[in-house]
């Protein structure tokens, strides 16, 4: 198992790994079933394998970890903006589609109230919830929320999610070794954060 991660770790030096991560993260706003979080964690665990994190050595490939974080965060924001812009220009057809979905209508109402209060933490929470990113980005565009209201929170959400996901993979390798067990524990922690975010978002506001 360890040898396998060392082999994968060497791949993080190849530029295409960032392209794969970036495309996956960007597209999962439209296809929420894409395992972009799992891919980011696996890439971070593999990078740790090449950096000596699992053996307690001083990491030599920290720039790889920083590049992976920046790549994931940037792709997350770009995906949000593309969905936001498409929804903003969607017109009556998108409005009718949202009107038929109780979940989307509820998300619209809560998002509007949260952004009006300056409480865009909902956008950050949604980044961790399954399909939450899609609902929030599309709802923000469909309700014609200004970019000035939406973009800063989208950037914070993307950076928070990227830092959390990369840290899970990297620290998991540091504590448990560069094994598939470490990756599995890290992925479980990511899913746990998603479940917690979903619970908080479903609670009725006071």
Automatic annotation (TrEMBL):
Protein localization: Cell membrane
Membrane topology: Multi-pass membrane protein
Matches recorded under InterPro entries: DedA-like, VTT_dom
Keyword match NAD: no
GO CC annotation: plasma membrane
Record keywords: Cell membrane, Membrane, Transmembrane, Transmembrane helix
Domain (VTT) ranges: 55-170
Segments traversing the membrane: 12-31, 38-59, 65-87, 150-173, 179-201
Entry superkingdom: Bacteria
Family: Belongs to the DedA family.
PANTHER family registered for this protein in UniProt: INNER MEMBRANE PROTEIN DEDA-RELATED, TRANSMEMBRANE PROTEIN
Annotated protein name in UniProt: Putative Integral membrane protein
Stored Pfam families: VTT_dom (PF09335)
């Amino acid at each position: 198992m360890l040898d396998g991660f060392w082999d994968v770790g060497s791949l993080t030096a190849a530029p295409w790994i960032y392209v794969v991560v970036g495309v996956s993260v960007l597209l999962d706003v439209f296809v929420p079933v894409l395992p972009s979080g799992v891919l980011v964690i696996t890439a971070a665990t593999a990078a740790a394998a090449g950096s000596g994190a699992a053996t307690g050595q001083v990491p030599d490939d920290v720039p790889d970890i920083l590049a992976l974080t920046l790549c994931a965060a940037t792709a997350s924001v770009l995906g949000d903006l593309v969905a936001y812009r498409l929804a903003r220009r969607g017109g009556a057809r998108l409005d009718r589609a949202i009107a038929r979905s109780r979940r989307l209508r509820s998300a619209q109402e809560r998002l509007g109230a949260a952004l009006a209060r300056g409480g865009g933490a909902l956008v950050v929470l949604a980044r961790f919830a399954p399909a939450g990113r899609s609902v929030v980005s599309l709802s923000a565009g469909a309700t014609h929320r200004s970019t000035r209201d939406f973009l800063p929170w989208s950037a914070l959400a993307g950076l928070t999610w990227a830092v959390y996901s990369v840290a899970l993979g990297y620290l998991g390798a540091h504590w448990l070794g560069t094994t598939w067990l470490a990756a599995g524990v890290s992925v479980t922690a990511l899913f746990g954060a998603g479940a917690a975010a979903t619970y908080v978002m479903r609670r009725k506001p006071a």
